[in-house]
Every structure is written in structure tokens, then in C-alpha cells.
Design a protein that fits this description.
Elements: E1 6-10, H1 20-38, E2 42-44, H2 46-49, H3 60-72, E3 81-84, H4 92-104, E4 107-110
Parallel strand pairs: 1-2, 1-3, 3-4
Helix pairs in contact: 3-4
Length: 119
């Protein structure tokens, strides 16, 4: 079976509205992740991976270390890429993920340009 290219979904998770705002951010990420799967990507959606965990005492750094571990295992040579959600610039985590992915040589796509086809 051919290896699928990975598309990491990056954007806001946290919100000043810790219930409804986070829920809306997860729904937005989920919508784009499903579209990525429909386009042939293997989508990694950290929003869905940690949904509801904002009520724990774990520090932000734990979540970011985990997210960067996923990105670290991605390969530009295999066509893996990042997909930046709307308003990603408002998230310090998404800004960090984008910089990390770009430094690794991953292609970066943006929601305002639509969901990319797998290359």
C-alpha cells in the first residue's frame, strides 16, 4: 500500500471562552481535517487529539512538545505539509508550529487558498 502524505492541521485551540470558544475552534479544525481526508491526505488534527484536555493542569509546553513531535516525524520528501487554519496568526502555538515546519522544509498551505490536492 502506498504511503499517504500527511497534512498537519494547525490553528487556534485556546480561547478566552474556555468552553464555547475552544469547541468552535475544534469544530473548525475538524471541518478542514475531514476535507483533507476527502482530498487524499492523512490528516493530523491535534485539536481532535486533545479535545477536552484544556481542563487539566498540564502546562501549555506539554501540548506544544507533543505537537512538535508529530511535525518532527513528518517528511518533506514524502510530500507531508502543514495546513494553516483561518486566523492562525492569533495562536502562539500555530505560529510556533508553522516556523518549526518551515524550518524543517515542509510545504505550508493556508485555508484562504483552499484545501490543496495531494502532490
Amino acid at each position: 500500500m502506498k504511503r499517504m502524505s500527511i497534512l498537519y492541521i494547525s490553528g487556534k485551540y485556546s480561547s478566552s471562552d474556555n468552553l464555547h470558544g475552544v469547541e468552535q475552534n475544534v469544530l473548525t479544525a475538524s471541518k478542514y481535517a475531514l476535507e483533507a481526508w476527502e482530498k487524499g491526505w492523512a490528516a493530523i488534527c491535534p485539536h481532535k487529539n486533545t479535545q477536552g484536555f484544556q481542563h487539566t493542569d498540564l502546562p501549555w509546553e506539554v501540548w506544544m512538545a507533543g505537537d512538535l513531535a508529530f511535525i518532527d516525524r513528518m517528511s518533506p520528501a514524502e510530500g507531508d505539509a502543514l495546513f494553516m487554519l483561518p486566523d492562525w496568526e492569533q495562536s502562539k502555538g500555530a505560529v510556533l508550529e508553522r516556523a518549526y515546519g518551515e524550518n524543517k522544509g515542509l510545504k505550508i498551505y493556508y485555508a484562504e487558498n483552499g484545501m490543496p490536492e495531494v502532490v
